[in-house]
Automatic annotation (TrEMBL):
InterPro entries: NAD(P)-bd_dom_sf, SDR_fam, SDR_subfam_1. Coiled coil: none annotated. It comes from Mycolicibacterium vanbaalenii (strain DSM 7251 / JCM 13017 / BCRC 16820 / KCTC 9966 / NRRL B-24157 / PYR-1). SUPFAM superfamilies: NAD(P)-binding Rossmann-fold domains. It comes from the Bacteria. It holds the Pfam family adh_short_C2. GO terms for molecular function: oxidoreductase activity, acting on the CH-OH group of donors, NAD or NADP as acceptor. Keywords: NAD, Oxidoreductase. This is Short-chain dehydrogenase/reductase SDR. Belongs to the short-chain dehydrogenases/reductases (SDR) family.
């Protein structure tokens, strides 16, 4: 018996990274999965994104947990396509109880253009809107909606990090505000809406040349090992990053009945990154 038996969850950005971890972790607790991902690169992004075989692997891993999986290759920036993908998933699996709006990009370092701004806003902000809004006609009373923010949303603007970095920071800040206000609108139906805000996570979004250069601007071509020497500066705890599973544990908690009265929360999974950077205002 799992905590989420017979429930259905939609997860965007499910092909790899945090999204795959969330999908598989929810499946391990008995949830059937609607897995969405673009499975293609974006012009304004500065590192490769997932491929169809990555989404297939997520489905395989989730199905090993004994649940059903419906996959769709879809660009979360495209409203009509997302609405259709979610509706098709609900038709296939019969209901919708959990929404994890997770898909995101973080174009940093060399190669940023104004397209990086557009792609980051449209993926990290509009994409969250699209996945959640497409799900609202289908979610049952008592459902759980979870949006992926970032420690960046808690620390303010990053206008010195180029158009992609600035757009990422802005998008995550607005997602936090959106979750706060939407939670009030859905509370009468016992639908909970929360945001999770991770620090550095051990995924492809972190492990790429652009982020390495952000953390080691003193080096022309920093390696992963050299960047990892600087990663702990983000956290109060002496670690370079957290693992996707650390975030997935929070997703599973927020998806289930153990958090039935938690809504409108901005949950930081940041190893003390916020308290290290922001003074107490008691």
């Amino acid at each position: 018996m799992g905590k989420l038996d017979n429930k259905v969850a939609v997860v965007s950005g499910a092909a790899r990274g945090q999204g795959r971890s969330h999908a598989v972790s929810l499946a391990a607790e008995g949830a059937h999965i609607i897995a969405l991902d673009i499975c293609a690169d974006l012009e304004g992004n500065t590192y490769p994104l997932s491929r169809p075989e990555d989404l297939d692997e997520t489905a395989r891993l989730a199905e090993k947990e004994g649940v059903r999986v419906h996959t769709a290759i879809v660009d979360v920036r495209e409203r009509a396509a997302v609405w259709k993908a979610v509706a098709d998933g609900v038709d296939a699996l019969g209901r919708l109880d959990i929404v994890v709006a997770n898909a995101g990009i973080c174009p940093m370092g060399r190669g940023q253009t104004i397209q990086s701004w557009s792609d980051a806003i449209d993926t990290d902000l509009v994409g969250v809107f699209n996945v959640i809004q497409a799900s609202l006609p289908h979610v049952n009373d008592g459902a759980s909606i979870i949006a992926t923010g970032s420690l960046a949303a808690q620390l303010g603007s990053a206008t010195n990090q180029g158009p992609g970095g600035s757009a990422y920071s802005l998008a995550k800040q607005v997602v936090a505000h959106y979750v706060n206000d939407l939670s009030i609108q859905l509370a009468k139906r016992m639908i909970r809406v929360n945001a999770i805000h991770p620090t550095n996570v051990n995924t492809d979004m972190l492990h790429n040349e652009g982020l390495y250069r952000v953390f080691r601007p003193d080096l022309k071509e920093p390696t992963r090992e050299e960047a990892e020497e600087a990663f702990p500066a983000m956290q109060a705890m002496p670690i370079p990053y957290i693992e996707p599973r650390d975030v997935s544990n929070a997703v599973v908690f927020l998806a289930g009945d153990d958090s039935r009265y938690i809504t409108g929360t901005q949950l930081r999974i940041d190893a003390g990154g916020y308290v290290k950077a922001v003074p107490w205002k008691g």
